[in-house]
Amino acid sequence: MFQLTLDPPTADWLRGFYRDLSGVVLEYGSGGSSVLALRSNANNQLYSCETDSLWLARLASFLTEEGLSERFHPLH
Question: Which of 23, 42, 45, 76 has the most neighbouring CB atoms within 10 Å?
Answer without folding.
Answer: 45
